[in-house]
């Protein structure tokens, strides 16, 4: 059996998993005067995520951190597969596989740092923002021209959706 090309793998994607800090955000941590964690998200990324879901491609979040700002944004976007506060992302990944029944061959993952390496190795396609650490850039099948929090997620969404037109 021959291995699928990159474009063929893109057409088979049914679920895309995203990290948050450094992918959906620029990776910087902001704290308010009362210790609350603040996050900045790019509206273009949010629109891309909604377009994936409108095209029957599921979206999931596996993040090492958890905060109210993140929970609110994910609720606003309508993302229901969320795993927050996950130091080790593989158990969340396994649970997501069980819940969705989607094969690893139909999943893509976008991450930027060491905790993302293990799940990236498990899926059909790994994506990275331009400012990811070198180990992730080396493992990624495709690297965005944009940094995390600045449209990298939208580029991935558009790339996947371009195969569905």
Task: Describe, in short, the structure shown.
The protein is α/β, with parallel strands linked by helices and 165 residues long. It has 7 helices and 8 strands.
For this entry, what is the oligomeric state of its chains?
Answer: single chain
Shape: globular
Name the CATH superfamily assignment: HAD superfamily/HAD-like
> Helix segment count?
7
Give the neighbour order of strands across the main sheet: 5-4-1-6-7-8
Q: Please give the CATH class.
A: Alpha Beta
Cα end-to-end separation? 27 Å
Low-pLDDT parts are none
By CATH, the architecture is named 3-Layer(aba) Sandwich
Largest sheet: 6 strands, parallel
How would you characterize this protein structure?
- Helix content is 40%, strand content 16%.
- By secondary structure, the chain is of the alpha/beta class.
- It has a single domain (6-161), classed as Rossmann fold.
- The strands form two sheets. A six-stranded parallel beta sheet has the order 5-4-1-6-7-8, sandwiched between helices. A two-stranded antiparallel sheet has the order 2-3.
- Helix 6 (134-139) links the parallel strand 7 (125-128) and strand 8.
- Helix 2 (43-54) packs parallel to helix 7 (152-161).
- The longest helix is centred in the N-terminal third of the chain and has 12 residues, at 43-54.
